[in-house]
Amino acid sequence: MKNRIKELEKISKLLDPGVKKRNEWNVEVLDYSNTFINKLDTSKAFFSSEENGKNIYNFDIEEQATALTSLLDSTKTNIDEVGINAASGGHMGYIPGGGLYPSALGDYIAAVHNRYAGVFFAAPGAVRLENMLIRWMCRLMGYPNNAAGNLTSGGSIANLVALVTAREAHNLKARNFDKSVIYLSEQAHHSILKAIRISGLSEAPVRFIPLDKKLRLSANELEKAIIKDKEDGLTPFFISASFGTTNTGAIDPIESIAKIAKKHKLWFHIDAAYGGFFKLVHKLNSKFKGLQKADSITLDPHKTLFLPFGTGTILVKNKGELLKAYQYLADYMQDTIDADEEISPADISPEQTKHFRGMRMWLPLKLFGLKPFRAALEEKLYLTQYFYDEIKKIKGFEVGPEPELSIAIFRYIPTDKNADSFNKKLIQAIQNDGRIFLSSTTINGTFWIRIAVVSFRTHLVQIELLLDIIKAHVREISIDLN
Ligand SMILES: *Cc1c(COP(=O)(O)O)cnc(C)c1O
């Protein structure tokens, strides 16, 4: 047997390469990423191709090892040069991501050192670091010391965690579900609807509250709906408001909603996945009035804190509610119970073993300090306002509501043609061009083109380029149609 063990050991040690090999790989990957970053100014924000990454299938898993060079070549052609280039400052569609460089270094350390950040006993320092980040976000949102939270994989999971916490806090049982009413704006993010289904609450009646002119949830309509439901013998349970809707960046009237939620004893959730970190911009402080009255808040550091994809946050005002929903002690985890100086992520989330996400967030925040984050977010506000003012000046363009944050909608109204079909052609042309990526949306049945300025790499030059591209394509489409 020992011979066999030795034999196996020799092969299995291939999994633990020595310093020479590691350095070789590091250099290759760093070269690859540096070239990628250095070329971002001139590379496209959107690639449309016939192949569309299909050749990645030639790299299926097999017995033989493959050289890194060939894997990086394949990554370049099949992954990095296909679809949306989310690292590009030209990405202004959907909600652009970020990808701060120090986050990659944080992920590197987290992966190599592999600290077990799920429980305090196993990685007290890692858990302290993540809880310190949570406490910083709580302070930023005006939450009390008794608040707690968790770094999730994104905003969708954060919304799910909030809904389940609310369900448990209200002691809902299956037999109550069809009487427990959920209130959303017509512009609520669809991840909340997913969360309703995943959390078993599909039978709960969902009321879509109408919007006011600025596409915000109407607090009056909300209260009317609640009163009507109570009269009908139902129990209002959960209201989710948006601090920055994904479609237009609208901010629901949170102070008024907070009052209504308190009066009628609803769980008040705020989905601030897109808008929350704008709190870092001092001049926006007044917009955040009342935020701390929410029972739970979703944030998304991989949006407006410019982190790479895979980091969301849920904050819950009353720590006890989170524990009630998620804490569970498995027999084989008994060693971990006494070390409760800090709450463990595993006790307040669906996850047990988890990625040490804190590292990718802490490193950039510390290396840069907050100042450039505040400046970048304020810059995005002004860039959006600038775009909005400029596009409005171009003959034929109509715009949506004044941007509250960094999202705006607009469309071209041709004199004698169908506006929707013209704007569909326009967005198609912008996407085919690829230097800037925009997406579209439909609001109350009308087709709009949408701009979301969120990437830390988007600056004035990309906005000017976008304006030029739009003008050129409008001319082209008009000529084609005539
Ligand atoms: C992006 C977004 C979500 C979903 O977050 P993910 O990180 O994509 O899972 C939820 N709500 C709002 C308002 C968003 O903008």
CATH architecture designation of the largest domain: 3-Layer(aba) Sandwich
- Quickly count the domains: 2
CATH structural class of the largest domain: Alpha Beta
* CA radius of gyration: 25 Å
CATH superfamily of the largest domain: Type I PLP-dependent aspartate aminotransferase-like (Major domain)
Within the largest sheet, what's the order of strands? Answer: 3-9-8-7-6-4-5
Q: What count of helical segments does DSSP give?
A: 15
| Assembly category | single chain
Largest sheet: 7 strands, mixed
Low-confidence parts, pLDDT < 50 over ≥5 residues?
Answer: none
Characterize the structure shown.
- This protein is an alpha/beta fold and 482 residues long.
- It folds into 2 domains: 108-368, 3-Layer(aba) Sandwich (Aspartate Aminotransferase, domain 2), CATH 3.40.640.10; 371-481, Aspartate Aminotransferase, domain 1, CATH 3.90.1150.10.
- Helices cover 43% and strands 13% of the residues.
- The chain is built from 15 helices and 13 strands.
- The strands form 3 sheets. It has a 7-stranded mixed β-sheet, sandwiched between helices.
- Helix 9 links the parallel strand 6 (235-242) and strand 7 (267-271).
- Helix 5 (124-141) crosses helix 12, helix 6 packs across helix 11 (319-326) and helix 13 (371-393) runs parallel beside helix 15.
- The longest helix has 23 residues, at 371-393.
- The radius of gyration is 25 Å and the shape is globular.
- The termini are far apart.
- Pyridoxal-5'-phosphate binds at residues 95, 154-156, 159, 189, 191, 242, 246, 271, 273-274, 300, 312.
